[in-house]
Design brief:
Helix content is 26%, strand content 38%. It has 147 residues and is an alpha+beta fold. It has an eight-stranded antiparallel beta sheet, covered by helices on one side. Strand 3 and strand 4 (74-82) form a beta hairpin.
Length: 147
């Protein structure tokens, strides 16, 4: 029984540590290490100030796009499209999820989604299980300065 609990705990830690959240470091080296049999993460566009990485599930149904500040290599924006609602705690990470969860200003629109903006963290998620769910989260203070 104890061996089973240890194994399950290890699997859970590996699953959670595999998620990329706002503020995490992401570059081509990290992206290569994140590729698994269930999803592929690759660089799709690189500009002078930012890079765009995209992760696609093996079945092609889930697509997550990450925007990274090239100066700091920090993820400043994540957008997603899937057949089900995404785990906002994984997307936002512990720092930004605590801010999001504690806020009383987020708007929940019944049967439609969530909208939150505190002038730094912006989160939007909408859709349905029938049409698919999409959303975006970004941190303005992590974004690259405009040239």
């Amino acid at each position: 029984m104890n061996k089973l609990l240890i194994l399950l705990s290890t699997i859970l830690v590996v699953k959670l540590s595999g998620a990329i959240s706002l503020g995490d470091t992401l570059n081509e080296t990290v992206a290569a290490q994140k590729n698994t049999t269930t999803s592929a993460l690759k660089l799709v566009e690189k500009k002078s100030t930012s890079s765009k990485f995209q992760s696609t599930s093996a079945d092609g149904k889930a697509v997550i796009t990450y925007l990274v500040n090239n100066k700091s290599n920090k993820v400043y924006s994540i957008s997603w499209q899937d057949s089900k609602a995404t785990n906002l705690q994984e997307i936002l990470g512990s720092t930004y999820y605590a801010k999001f969860a504690a806020s009383k200003t987020k708007k929940r629109i019944p049967f439609r989604g969530v909208n939150f903006d505190d002038n730094d963290l912006v989160v939007t998620q909408f859709g349905s299980m029938l049409s698919g769910v999409q959303g975006a989260a970004s941190v303005k203070s992590l974004a690259p300065e405009e040239e």
